[in-house]
Amino acid sequence: MLSGDLSTMALADVLQWVDAGRGRALVTVTRPDGQARWLLAEERVVIAAAAPPVSGRLSSDGTPDAPGPALEAVALEYLLDLFLQSEGKFELRNDAPTPPDAVRVSMPVQFLVMEGLRLLDERTRLEETYPRDEARLAATDADAEGLSVIDSAIVQVAQGAPALGEVRLVLGLSRPSLLRHVDSLRQRGLVDVEGTAHGPDIEGSVIQQAQVLLRERQYAEAAHVFRSLLATNPEDGRVRRLLQEAERLQIDAAYELFSPTDVVTRDEDYRELDLKGTDRAVLDCLERPRSVAILVLVSPLRELETLSALRRLASKGLVTIEAAD
Question: CA 257 to CA 77: how far, in whole Å?
């Protein structure tokens, strides 16, 4: 068992520990007021979460054992809220049984961490943009196709121009959760909020689309979007963090295809081919067979670039990757 204070070991660090262990782990976070929430992870995926602490339209979708998409989504929203908790205690138990009233969910631990850290970065901006619970929310005439279950519910409720506080109570969302979804919908031009600028936020909409790519495991495509945004605004810390997370997920995905101990051998006919600089740079490092881990160390390229080149070369049959004896 591992336990401690969130002030000395943040939840993101705890979950990185869980992800690295790859086993079954129950993580419980207890706030200073005594309220506790938990998540259960197994093989790097969050498989269960505590039931939502409040009732609402979303949480009535199914039961914990057989949750509908709305109940599963709102249970994950309350997990994301835990990243905003800077005080309290955590407890990590390995090989723990599933607690009662668990809501079955499915989200990679790394993606939960990435989303949680992003929301932590944006918390101040959201609070400053939407400071009043009595501000009215109104749906626009824009096309609202392809929305998530939570976004769809918010747009539906917004048809009656309720106050933000009313929406939160009707749907059973936390305030941070409501604000991040309302902000996403406003960026897409689907809702207006009293006291804020009208119209879509183009950059925010592009970021949202790139995050959809991340959820669909299209990491290279998402990273390309973040690099393009960062090139136009190098000081944007939010985009820089998202790019770092996208690249780290690319690296993790590469190591799912081959192990650091696998041995790489090149085809000696490669010099006759017209290869790109990165591919040739990796092949030039293979004057003798090397493990993937050693190749990453001796390559003049970054780890991600080396692994990406290795995948391309393997697909072309220019290298052989075999398990070590």
Answer: 31
